[in-house]
Design goal:
Bound molecules: zinc ion
CATH superfamily: Homocysteine-binding-like domain
CATH class: Alpha Beta
Structural class: alpha/beta
Distance between the termini: 44 Å
Strand content: 5-15%
Shape: globular
CATH architecture: Alpha-Beta Barrel
Number of helices: 15
Largest sheet: 8 strands, parallel
Length: about 350
């Protein structure tokens, strides 16, 4: 597990993974969602906007997400392995500047600086008692940046940092409680949607989805997994299974983030498109290529034009929401947004 943790903490605060299959769906809500989600496109015909996401997608057939936060924090001088979430309070102007750079690059949605904002992860930095404060502050600074652009703010939920039973000690209920605490702070800060990202284990995804439903049933939920191990997650989930199982949880969008660069992301999204149920949005957020260790930092090898080509490829597949992950900067997002705009 040491390797697991170090990989995430070293490569970027905004990276992760975790768990497996939903054994205890919140029956009432999930059943309702299963009924509603496939009807979304039909309901468009009646002018009914289901969520902030589907509402925006009536104006333009795709949305642009931002790129890496961790990469930008490192560029701004944060210590490798440091708790970037503390900057939401101690250096909020730097966080706002990063959000604004992505917004001015053309991002429709920015992600709060809360990837490691759960209690177990903040505990690693002695800040486990500041979950609510740091998440609320992160949402507030993102909203402040997003307001002039009319952009949306996604409340970022990374893996808890603990493995669920039976591989680890965390029970599904405990995991849900961890996520509920984090989401409560984000919601108080004003997020527009919940982004559950860099997951590996469907069980942990289930806990996070239940938490979001419990705390903010009105908010859309977007879930991404990292398929960085031979086109599977660290826990062995393949892209088709992810779409099928997580789609059945009643979320709004499913997809992939992080991983091993645009080429593998293309294959992953092709596999997802093949099994996508009607009405489920797909999202792809590739790393900007593969990381190379340079000194004590990772550098990524895909330039903005490469990511722009990748964005066009994803769009051609029918992927609805496109952004970047580790190594992608405002320059990458600007190239992606521009090419999507010109080929729309
Ligand atoms: Zn990443």
């Amino acid at each position: 597990m040491e390797i697991y943790r170090r990989r995430h903490d070293v490569m970027a605060p905004r990276m992760c993974h975790t768990l497996s299959s939903l054994t205890e769906p919140r029956i009432t809500r999930t059943a309702e969602q299963r009924t509603v989600v496939p009807l979304v496109r039909t309901l468009f015909d009646y002018g009914i906007a289901m969520t902030v996401l589907t509402d925006r997608l009536t104006n333009r057939p795709y949305l642009v997400f931002d790129g890496a936060m961790g990469t930008m924090l490192q560029a701004a001088g944060i210590e490798p392995g440091g708790a970037g979430e503390l900057w939401n309070v101690e250096n909020a102007d730097a966080i706002e500047t990063i959000h604004t750079a992505y917004l001015s690059a053309g991002a429709d949605i920015v992600t709060t600086n809360t990837f490691g904002g759960s209690r177990p992860r903040l505990d690693m930095h002695g800040a486990g008692d500041r979950v609510h404060e740091l998440n609320m502050a992160a949402a507030q600074v993102a909203k402040r940046a997003a307001a002039p652009y009319g952009a949306l703010v996604a409340g970022d939920i990374g893996p808890s940092g603990e493995l669920l039973e039976p591989l680890g000690l965390l029970t599904p209920d405990e995991a849900q409680a961890v996520f509920e605490e984090q989401i409560a702070g984000l919601v108080e800060g004003g997020i527009d949607l919940v982004l559950i990202e860099t997951m590996s284990d469907l069980e942990e995804v289930g806990a996070a989805v239940r938490a979001a439903r419990a705390i903010a049933p009105e908010l859309p939920i977007v879930v991404t997994l990292s398929f960085d191990t031979k086109l599977r997650t660290m826990m062995g989930v393949n892209p088709a299974t992810a779409v099928t199982e997580i789609g059945a949880m009643g979320v709004d969008a499913v997809g992939a983030n992080c991983g091993r660069g645009p080429s593998e992301m293309q294959v992953i999204m092709e596999q997802m498109v093949d099994v996508r149920p009607e009405g489920l949005l797909l999202i792809g957020q590739s790393n900007a290529g593969l990381p190379h260790l340079v000194g004590d930092r990772f550098e990524y090898d895909a330039d903005p034009e490469t990511m722009a080509q990748h964005a066009r490829s994803l769009r051609a597949l029918g992927v609805d929401i496109i952004g970047g992950c580790c190594g992608s900067t405002p320059e990458h997002i600007a190239a992606m947004a521009a090419t999507l705009e010109s080929s729309n």
